[in-house]
Amino acid sequence: MKFWIWMMLAAVGAQAHAFDFSDWLKKGGGYQRKRSVKSKSTNVAAVRGVDEPGDVDPDARDFPSLKKVESRQSAPASQLSGQSEDEIKIGRDVAANVIAQFGLYEDNELTSYVYAVGLKVANSAPKRDIPYRFAVLNSDILNAFAAPGGYIFVTRGLLAALKDESQLACVLAHEVAHITQRHVMKAIQKSRMVEAVIPAYAKASADKAKYMKPVADMAVKMLWKGLSREDELDSDRLAIDYASAAGYDAASFRDVLLMLKSRAQTPQGVDQHVKFILSTHPKPDDRIRAVEEKLRQK
Fold first, then answer.
1. Residue 14: which H helix or E strand, with range?
2. Alpha-carbon 213 to chain mean position
3. Which of 8, 117, 215, 238 has the most CB atoms in a 10 Å sphere around its CB?
4. What is the edge-to-edge ordering of all strands in the sheet holding 151-155?
5. Sign of CA dihedral 69, 74, 78, 79
6. CB-based burial of residue 64 (10 Å sphere; 0-12 exposed, 13-18 middle, 19+ buried)?
7. What is the rounded CA–CA span in Å between residue 235 and residue 241?
């Protein structure tokens, strides 16, 4: 592992597990939309006002910005297998689409911090022969995303709503669980839409690229449609294990879910900033029950 990564992890381990993300973002100008980037590859404005899945452009890609994310990545646990190489290729398309929707929040100090916490959690999860990348999206909405192949994103809106490092670790642990369990890839394999594509892709040798795009497009749609209720609750439970193994207070995840529940039940109705995550995840009450049951087993 690179020396700077070890130094960052040491710094994270040494500091108190109380980090005011709201204050951090305000000091760094987190709500200045002019800091958003514009996609060079698609000419689509990176900050698109995406509040729910219906606002998403499934064809948008921002590969230039993706390269910035890939410049900071963990080393894979072992040599990449053919299966993992394919997953990363598909994940690159999905990650480029995520960035095209929201844009990157380009604060190197904050991104390094999120990366270090995420890597600490990922190192406590079952090892996979893929690198992990963590980045912050420039959006007010409260959400986090995991693309196949180790790409994990959290919005600055969600960061601002968290209270401490343990809550951040639990959020990232949930996304890491989607990666370790290959939830998106398994959902693709179960889809009838790929019955014709996957066999042809598996048999192809030199010309796999032409089969990759329809599979990647399907992965993009899977992400925005939302994974199954079972997959989301599975990731909630595993997040408790991963965060706890990394030395964090896993009960903080319950507090995150309670916060989402409170945003869903304001006197004015559902907070606009949580509409997206509520539309692609089980109800907060269901998630809270599952997490509390898991915590009782610890």
1. helix 3-14
2. 21
3. 117
4. 133-137, 151-155, 144-147
5. positive
6. middle
7. 10
Q: List, run by run, the mean pLDDT of 10-residue segments along the chain (298 residues).
A: 46 46 58 38 47 84 93 78 82 93 90 93 92 94 94 94 93 97 88 61 59 79 88 97 97 96 83 87 94 93
Number of domains observed in the structure of the chain: 1
Residues in Cβ contact with 163 at an 8 Å cutoff, skipping those fewer than 6 apart: 18, 20, 255
Q: How far apart are CA 252 and CA 240, in angstroms?
A: 9
CA distances for 86 relative to 31, 34, 118, angstroms = 37, 36, 23
| Structure tokens, 133 | 């990348």
- How much is the pTM? 0.83
Site of tokens 């639990």? 170
